[in-house]
Structures are given as structure tokens and as C-alpha cells.
Please model this.
Amino acid sequence: LIAAFNAINARMAARARRIPPAPATTAKPDAAPAAG
Model:
């Protein structure tokens, strides 16, 4: 779970750097399946 979460965290960071408002909405769908 840590490795998967870390990978998603990297994606969120990359998206956040490109587009600031997007990560807030994209973080929910991406984080949900990884945690489950």
C-alpha cells in the first residue's frame, strides 16, 4: 500500500505542478482505488 500510495502521490505532485486547481478533484478518484 505504501509503494502504491507513494506512486500516486508522485502523480498528484506532477499534476499539481502543471495545474493547481485540478489535483483537488483528481486526487479523490485516483486515491480511492489505490487505498481499496
Q: What stands out?
A: The helical segments are 2-18, 22-35. The chain has one domain: 2-35. Residues 2-35 form one domain.
